[in-house]
Design a protein that fits this description.
With about 575 residues, the protein is an alpha/beta fold. The protein is built from 19 helices and 23 strands. It has three domains: about 160 residues, Formyl transferase, N-terminal domain (Rossmann fold, 3-Layer(aba) Sandwich); about 100 residues, Methionyl-tRNA Fmet Formyltransferase, Chain A, domain 2 (Roll), CATH 3.10.25; about 230 residues, 2-enoyl-CoA Hydratase, Chain A, domain 1. The strands form four sheets. Strands 7, 8, 9, 10, 11, 12 and 13 form a seven-stranded mixed sheet that branches. It has a six-stranded mixed sheet with strand order 2-1-3-4-5-6, sandwiched between helices. A six-stranded mixed sheet has the order 14-15-16-18-20-23, sandwiched between helices. Bound molecules: coenzyme A (COA).
């Protein structure tokens, strides 16, 4: 079928559905929901068999839903309606939640139900639930709804005929009033629910050192105690705020009145107010751990769950140090695990935007990532594996490819391209790594197509070596099993020997320093040259400026080469 996505943005859920439906043989084209007339024009151009709205903030125009079946993906259980579904589910401490695919009509989220899927709630942020449980449930529900639509004889269920014992209900937009923390009353558990129901956006409005701000990136502190509402310690990027019965860490803030009105590390923003505070060396129970290492049965595991997958120069330096320390351990393999939500999204664009000179900060950041990539590529002592539990984008994908093997959870989305960030050339030794691991032909496909890909597609292009059909802790168990089997295999020593020999031969053919120099020469132009595209694209990304049109890479129905129509 020809399926048109009407969506507010090409976010992770939309990308995943795009990849899944294309893999099923459907043709998918995307239009951003900018205004009614643009949406109507898109539908006229696309003449789709089916319209899907994976992530919409406005109602679909009546002229569209009256003529076409429009399936809305709603992150709530059947009967639930309203714009803050997941926020309410977290704040109200629901143990189960779901995704419902319903047909658009004149009532917001009130249409007939085509499919739904439930999941158990996890105590984590809204963003993490959205990128994991909600996305998996949405894939199942949308696949079922599309199958039913295609079958032609399915009768969707009107909401007034719902037979579940506890159907959802209409819930209004959640306001800051409901999210607000009463530091003198709220328990740690309630504080966490408020913070988690508001993360990644809009955050919880609060006030620190007399400055209005929004709080993000919360974790429970198990040891420290203090006067409720007071900042009592710091650790890495985070500050610790005492509650009535414990304390929480807040890793990121947005200062409403600063000239950097976007999320930044808390200790960076409040640096001049924190000099008296105790710095906590993080452990599993106390402090805010950004990077940690564990070791078992001859394998070292490095975790680096950086917030939003963004890697600043400071974080790259710290990770490089941790990686070098891991290399000193008596192990045979090092597994780079990133975090559960993201493996890496490359340079930290918010930190760059906040710097005095964005060009200098970009230069420093790309060099810091390159140093890390170089250390991984040139590792002779260990087998290295990048195990992707979460998504990776831009330089993050190529940093993963610096390892000997890349393993990805089935469901992970990769965006192995830089061009959407103002035609950034990119570095991380991609010009060596891609031909080396995927070959010239696949390298061209990866670099040119500027589209997200799922783990199976990435494996078909050899960007990923192994797809793992497990999620959460089962993924980690599987990674452990596979790595242990690998180092126990009789051919392991030979494999390390071959790896060293291949690296030596490659170095003789063209040194890594030359690849880096050539890539950075182009990056210098991006950062310091007369074309400001990268700086504009980064500004728009960080300040969340809505796109005024859909890129032709995904709006296939608007392409003059008529790719959409020809293929049909
Ligand atoms: N630096 C800083 N923040 C980043 C980031 C980066 N490199 N990549 C993602 N983020 C943030 C987003 O701003 C967003 O923040 P929010 O919590 O305030 O909403 C959050 O991470 C999630 O990103 P989003 O774009 O909503 O996720 P997605 O899964 O829909 O899209 C990407 C993933 C990778 C396609 C997209 O985030 C992206 O293009 N990132 C930039 C990659 C890049 O160009 N890096 C620099 C070159 S190496």
């Amino acid at each position: 079928m020809r399926i048109l996505f009407l969506t507010h943005a090409f976010n992770s859920l939309t990308q995943r559905l795009f990849v899944e439906l294309e893999a099923l043989g459907h043709q998918v084209s995307v239009e951003f929901d900018i205004n009614d007339s643009v949406a109507m024009e898109a539908v006229a151009l696309a003449s789709p068999d089916l319209i899907i709205a994976p992530f919409l903030k406005r109602a679909i125009p009546e002229s569209i839903w009256q003529r076409h079946v429009c399936l809305v993906v709603h992150p709530g259980i059947p009967g639930d309606r309203g714009p803050s579904s997941l926020d309410w589910a977290i704040l109200q401490g629901k143990s189960r939640w779901g995704v419902t695919v319903l047909q658009a009509n004149g009532e917001m989220d009130g249409g007939d139900i085509w499919a739904s899927c439930e999941f158990a709630m996890r105590q984590t942020s809204k963003g993490s639930l959205y990128r994991n449980e909600v996305t998996e449930a949405a894939v199942k529900a949308v696949r079922l709804a599309v199958e039913r639509f295609q079958a032609g004889d399915y009768q969707p269920l009107p909401q007034d005929q719902l037979k579940t014992s506890e159907p959802g209900q209409w819930q209004p937009l959640m306001k800051q009033q409901q999210r607000q923390i009463d530091w003198q009353q709220d328990t740690t558990e309630l504080v966490m629910r408020k913070l988690q129901s508001s993360d990644g956006m809009p955050g919880v409005k609060d006030c620190l050192f007399g400055q209005p701000c929004h709080l993000y990136d919360a974790r429970v502190e198990k040891v420290l105690r203090g006067k409720p509402g007071e900042v009592i310690a710091r650790s890495g990027p985070a500050i610790c705020i005492a509650t009535v019965d414990g304390a929480v860490w807040v890793g990121h803030l947005k200062l409403s009145e600063a000239n950097t009105p976007f999320k930044l590390p808390a200790t960076w923003l409040l640096a001049d107010r924190l000099s008296e505070l105790e710095e906590i060396e993080p452990t599993a129970d106390s402090g805010y751990r950004e990077i940690w290492y564990e070791q078992a049965d001859g394998v070292g595991y490095l975790h680096f769950p950086f917030y939003n997958g963004a890697m600043s120069s400071r974080q790259c330096h710290a990770l490089l140090e941790a990686y070098r320390a891991a290399k000193q351990c008596d192990t045979q393999a090092i597994v780079l695990l990133g975090g559960p939500d993201y493996w890496s999204n490359g340079m930290h664009l918010n930190m760059i935007e906040a710097a005095g000179s964005a060009a200098d900060a970009s230069w420093e950041n790309i060099n810091a990532i390159d140093d890390l990539a170089l250390e991984i590529i040139t590792t002779e002592s260990h087998l290295t594996i990048a195990a992707l539990q979460g998504n990776a984008g831009a330089g993050g994908v190529f940093l993963a490819r610096a390892a000997d093997e890349v393993w990805a959870r089935n469901g992970v989305i990769l965006n192995p391209h830089y061009k959407d960030m103002g035609n950034l050339y990119g570095s991380e030794y991609w010009s060596y790594l891609l031909p080396r691991y995927v070959g010239e032909e696949h390298a061209q496909i990866i670099i040119q197509n500027r589209l997200p890909m799922g783990a199976p597609q990435a494996a078909a292009l050899q960007l990923v070596d192994r797809v793992i059909d497990e999620r959460g802790s089962s993924f980690l168990v599987q990674v452990r099993k596979l790595t242990e089997a690998m180092i126990a295999a009789p051919a392991f020593a030979k494999r390390l020997h071959y790896k060293r020999a291949r690296r030596t031969a490659d170095e003789l053919q063209k040194p890594l320093s030359q690849y880096r120099e050539e890539e950075l020469e182009q990056m210098k132009r991006n950062f310091y040259g007369f074309d400001p595209s990268y700086h504009i694209a980064r500004y728009n990304f960080v300040h969340k400026i809505a796109k005024s049109r859909t890129p032709l890479t995904i709006a296939r129905h608007r392409r003059t080469d008529n790719q959409w129509k020809c293929a049909s």
